[in-house]
């Protein structure tokens, strides 16, 4: 069994790391807040003192971090320690440009795979995430399968690119549902009646996500992901969505809560005409 280093134990990383332990992989974990690793250490993982320590003896390195800045910071620490034959699987949502940056930095003999995931915390806990794997993923196919079904997306960076597309659609759909419900409020419609009608239409999936109670994807992460999209090409509708989530993320009671909390924020938000 491959020795795996897993870096980043947030809402998604922790249940994903549990899947590796359940599969029998020797696992070393690292997280900026070490206390978050305690349940995994209790289940058999080794806690590394820093990222370099985590990857030094690993066959596979997995990074599941909050965003581009966190990935770059961890890369600074681990790149000098990566030995030939190691597979580095970058599973954060950072976009293809960051993946290309990492590829330019990895030592000869190290294989970089971008493999972000589709699904939230419930899917992570059940091992049912969708994995979008770009690059040469043959050497880590069995490891990735611990998290859920794998879709090969093409060359390095294509997984990261497709993840931005998917998240943009999901987040945009949630914002559209929030605005539709705001219109229903303004027209005096019963909330459950309006919600039920929307759920039976083309936005049914987005309605379910907008009112979900058992998953987690913070508004701050939604801002990061939509910004990755709007920085890539002109997307006027998504610029408006970005404004919605930036306003939600400015509220300390909402910023780290699931995007379902942002729906109520959008419904109550008053925007002055330009």
Tell me the number of strands: 9
**Class based on secondary structure composition and strand pairing:** alpha/beta
Order of strands in the sheet with most strands: 3-2-1-4-5-6
Cα Rg: 20 Å
What fraction of the residues are assigned to beta strands by DSSP?
Answer: 5-15%
| Shape label | elongated
Describe this structure in words.
- The chain is of the alpha/beta class.
- It has helices at 13-22, 38-42, 51-55, 68-78, 96-105, 121-126, 141-145, 158-186, 191-199, 204-210, 219-230, 236-249, 259-268; strands at residues 4-7, 27-30, 46-47, 60-63, 87-90, 111-114, 117-118, 130-134, 150-154.
- The strands form two sheets. The protein has a six-stranded parallel β-sheet, sandwiched between helices. It has a three-stranded mixed β-sheet with strand order 7-8-9.
- Strand 8 (130-134), helix 7 and strand 9 form a beta-alpha-beta unit.
- Helix 8 crosses helix 11 and helix 8 (158-186) packs parallel to helix 13 (259-268).
- It is elongated and about 65 Å long.
- The N and C termini lie far apart (60 Å).
- The model has no long low-confidence stretch (mean pLDDT 96).
């Amino acid at each position: 069994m491959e020795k795996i280093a897993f870096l980043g134990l947030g809402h998604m990383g922790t249940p994903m790391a549990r899947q590796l332990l359940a599969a029998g992989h020797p696992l070393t974990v690292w997280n900026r807040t070490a206390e978050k690793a305690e349940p995994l250490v209790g289940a058999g993982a080794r806690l590394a003192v820093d990222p370099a320590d985590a990857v030094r003896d690993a066959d596979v390195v997995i990074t599941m971090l909050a965003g581009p800045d966190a990935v770059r910071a961890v890369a600074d620490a681990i790149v000098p320690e990566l030995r030939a034959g190691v597979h580095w699987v970058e599973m954060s949502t950072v976009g293809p440009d960051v993946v290309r940056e990492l590829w330019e930095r990895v030592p000869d003999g190290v294989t970089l795979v971008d493999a972000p995931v589709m699904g939230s915390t419930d899917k992570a806990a059940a091992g049912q995430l969708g994995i979008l794997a770009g690059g040469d993923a043959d050497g880590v196919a069995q490891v990735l399968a611990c998290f859920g079904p794998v879709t090969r997306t093409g060359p390095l960076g294509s997984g990261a690119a497709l993840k931005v597309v998917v998240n943009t659609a999901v987040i945009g759909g949630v914002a559209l549902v929030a605005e539709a419900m705001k219109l229903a409020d303004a027209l005096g419609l019963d909330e459950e009646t309006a919600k039920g009608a929307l759920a039976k239409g083309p936005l049914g999936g987005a309605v379910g996500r907008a009112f979900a109670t058992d998953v987690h994807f913070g508004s701050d992460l939604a801002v990061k992901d939509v910004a990755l999209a709007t920085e890539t090409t002109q997307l006027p509708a998504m610029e408006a969505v970005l404004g919605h989530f930036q306003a939600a993320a400015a509220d300390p009671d909402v910023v780290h809560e699931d995007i379902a909390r942002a729906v109520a924020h959008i419904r109550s938000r008053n925007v002055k005409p330009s």
